[in-house]
Amino acid sequence: MRFGPLPLADAAGAVLAHSLKLAGLSFRKGRVLSGEDVTALAAAGLDTVVAALPEPGDVAEDAAAARLARAVAGSGLTVSAAFTGRVNLFAAVAGLAVVDRDRVDRLNLLHESLTLATLPAHTPVEAGQMVATVKVIPFAAPGDAVTAAEALAAPGPLLHVAPWQGLRTGLVQTLLPGLKPAVLEKTVAATRDRLAGVGATLAAERRVPHEGAAVATALTDLHDAGCTLLLVAGASAITDRRDVVPAGIVEAGGEVLHFGMPVDPGNLLLLGRLGDVPVLGLPGCARSPRLNGFDWVLHRLAAGLEVTGPDIMRMGVGGLLSEIPTRPLPRAQATAPPRAPRIAALVLAAGLSRRMGRNKLLADVGGVPLVARAVDAALASQVRSVTVVVGHQQDAVRDALTGRAVRIVEAAEHAAGLSASLKAGLRALPDDADGVLVLLGDMPRVEAAAIDRLIAAYAPAEGRAVCVPAFRSRRGNPVLWDRRFVPEMLELIGDTGAKALLDRHADLVCEVEMPDDGVLVDVDTPEALAALRGGP
């Protein structure tokens, strides 16, 4: 990649290295300079510009990041669109992040332009939580490095999320004189909460004397009752493979696989098996809700992963849990982990179609009503919900959307203009929506990929609170708004929509360049409809 001051004559197709603000011009870092941009810069008095110019064989940052993300991501993950060389990977389900540490290291060693950052291996995640991010260091990557990264992932993905299996758990507690009932109840409560955090349930409990035969009977009973995980909390800590709890496992017909672990607290954990059901002899710290070695083994079992003795013996690095004062309690975080933005889509479909002379949204294009094309694009994207605002001929519009998973709301005052439809939709936003994507029902060439690219660009903390699509520097629709703007949008009047707010909050607006002009094309007239259909 060629980088540095470039004569304007060579700058078309180059990527702007630094933002430029000149009289009448405002170009952001990362903009791919078009011929029109170069002409405008020359008119502003510039003869050179600091930019990056890809060389033969280079892969542009967004394309490289998308290829890398597709290669490394496995099951249980959703992949965002690429933006500024970044692709985020989010958990599609609650479960355990499984990471091939060795191959991630090898990938990051391929070339400095390619980076993959992940959560630590075997981190519990919620659906929607960020698990990894791919970042291509600006502004392009060598094609051979990208190909090598794909080859590295060819045997299988480098990371995936193993979903919680919904284990039915049986708990055995042994009793000795002097053991207070409150301790037993505390153990039940801590166990039930711990299991709930990994999608498991406490199906049954047995309390028996601290004797091998009694433990064996209780384990057999719970196994026969269909429990898929067995836990034994002894009244006295396990001190040897031949102690009461492991002896009970063996007497029940099971086997002891491993005793002890290099994790503190949690050293005295025992791993066994009864038939195909794992059995854990719990360390004393398991009676507490604080993170301990039991949690590390439980997480894997709850996600359906096999746990062996060598697996436990490799848990030493990072296993000194008692000396990490900032480590959160199970299921408690000081701050919420990064997650996919919750974006609600509003499709405005209430207008009178005055210029068309009939309801354009019902016009047939390739066998599909115009409004359905806009709705289908939203449904195929990464938005969390789709709400359609109806008004004019609303019964017919509702019929055109039959069978689609959308919420439909009426704009009673739709004849007052676009703002009335917008406000009706905004009042119906889901309470948990981070932002709202406003789509126009008469723009059938907006694709799901364009919507996903807007969502990928959305980052209010980084100053990208309003994301506007553009094609060759011309702004279009749909527009993605952070929820903070909803109060202002609810005060709009007339037929102008929220366009005035773009100027008011220009410092928070991000233009997202699109590969085609679909974000500029609406259908307002019979001529536009004929052109869309490919007619004269």
UniProtKB/TrEMBL annotation:
Residues 170-303 form the MoaB/Mog domain. InterPro entries: Bifunc_Mopterin-bd, MoaB/Mog-like_dom_sf, MoaB/Mog_dom, MobA-like_NTP_Trfase, Nucleotide-diphossugar_trans. CDD domains: GT_2_like_f, MoeA_like. GO terms for molecular function: transferase activity. Pfam families: NTP_transf_3. It comes from the Bacteria. Keywords: Magnesium, Transferase. This is NTP transferase domain-containing protein.
